[in-house]
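LAB NOTEBOOK - FOLDING QUEUE
OPERATOR: T.R.
BATCH SIZE: 2
PURPOSE: Compare the predicted structure-token outputs for two unrelated chains run back to back under identical settings.
PRIORITY: normal
REVIEWER: second-year student, initials M.K.

ITEM 1
FIELD SEQUENCE / FIELD STRUCTURE:
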Amino acid sequence: MSEEQQLREILAQKIFSNNMPTEFIDFCLAHGRIRHYTSKQYLFFSGDEGNTVYFLITGRIQLYLMGEFSEKIIRVLSPPVFFPEVVLDGKAYPHAALCIENAEVLAIDRHTFMRFVEKNPSVLWVFYHGLALDLRRSYRQIKNLSLGDARLRLGAKIFALAHVHGKPSLNGILITIPLPATELAGMCSLARESVSRILGELKELKIIEIERKSITVLDLNNLREWIRKRAAHSRSSID
């Protein structure tokens, strides 16, 4: 299979689940340019002009908000995926994008992209479904951060990461991205010390295993039950 055929399959089947018309895939292949990035290289920063849309082909990319004194990781992207949907409105990038390993993307000029969409409005429905999923994910994250205690926040984040970035291993579900306590703390808006303490508790309960920066969830059902109990405790505390 040629490189173009592989890329066509990724776009048509893996990113858009065969819901996009062939004309859209042809457009992406004709106007997109493959770019290669190395680990720790930025694609863009928060506030930069939103002039490019991307399809992540290989590698992983971290999206995060940047403050004057802190950073908040909001999502880790695994291929294949289209991003960032929010720049379809023509405004600046609301977050930064950093490669956490070598990555390959298909990049398309936003103005060129939008001209095609304006002439073929039916494709917007496919993007709408993706935006709706991201919005639901954001609501869930806001709920966990605002209503949950520290254990609930971290447990819910580990559970979500196991679903998105997990793969079966001999012991359970291995989360395939490095997860040092500092990055987990940033994802959950917690202190690093709190994250380390809670990870230790989960390890003692034999819910997770930790080896260096890798986390394995030994049993997702046990983690789910632990989260459920923490959620019930949080609700009773609020009431």
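ITEM 2
FIELD SEQUENCE / FIELD STRUCTURE:
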Amino acid sequence: MGFTIQDMMIASEERYRMKYLAGKNGWANSISWVHLIEDTMIIRNFWGKELAVTTGLGFPTEEAYMELARYLVKHHAAGLIVNVGNYIEELPDGLLAYCEENDLPLLTVPWEIHLSDMIKDFSIRIFAQGSTDEEVANALIAAVEQPDNQDAYRKKLLPHFDVDGTFQAMLIASEGLDSMDTVDRRRLSYRLQLYLEQITHNGSFFYYNSFFVLVVNAIKPELLIELGEGMLRRARKRMPDRALYVGIGSQVTDIGNLSASYRRAEAAARMAMRTKTPLLQFEKMGLYRLLYSCTDTGLLEQMKAESLSVLEEHDRRHHSNYVEVLRCYLEFDGSIQAMAQSMFTHRNTVIYRMNNIKKLLGTELATPAERLPYQIAFYIRELF
């Protein structure tokens, strides 16, 4: 997940005498680049995940610091380092409280530290970790696309993951990702990575096949659900105009089975987007697990047409509602009384219409086996 605030602290706590003051929930924020800033103008060009460093020269008052923090949160920065000891001795309590509330890591280094050396150090580490992340993402994609060709990915992933352990995929969907400009999609990717708290190097985040993908290793399924829900909460707060949908696949053991978790997460993500459900687990999809996992959409259309096309044609010609009557019949397990109440129709009218439907279909719909094809057909209707 890139060079993170946590990585930076491990490398810098002693070397640069760095202290972590606030924004503890941003511990796993990955850093895309480091900028030395003394005003807020440059922040408007942030893509996301940038780490801001300041001496405080351009922020002489508490309100100026608050404005800086608000800009950084608005533009999805990874964190803020303040070089204390000359222009500022102590950071105001209001700034600490704001950073804590908005999960913006706030750190300090003493005036004696040479910022140019520190920034150069971090930049090299960011570049190196970025190259590693790209290699890891490509290997995970190979595991999804070619699960039987373990030579293509297993050795490459061995230094980074417990390849014999558990893996689970989470996919994030949103309208228009494919048609999005590459720059805008990367910007969105950076923002989503900031919203995924508590994931550092036991996970990999990348864009693949119209979805943002998070693959996690050795993480409990309930924690992955919490991560997805937390990401959605932060996205609704910070990006209210963009709807996101999350699909979570099954947890599998061994990297060779990652493909199964990915395919199931994809099915859940597609259903979540179709039904406007923010987060959906594959295990909670019921019969839709089979239908959304079927890649032969032509077969699904054929099965639906075989069961319902006669009634659909009758409804078109006669302006009737036989398809809806049949759906209600199946929903209420053939109870005429319940159907009449639900449809606000006299029971004799319901009986008359059901008799006509049975004649058109050539079945009495008397047994579960006779009803099953029509129940599946209505499930398929929900897919398209």
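REVIEWER COMMENT (ITEM 2): The first strand starts at residue 19 and ends at 22.
FOLLOW-UP: none requested
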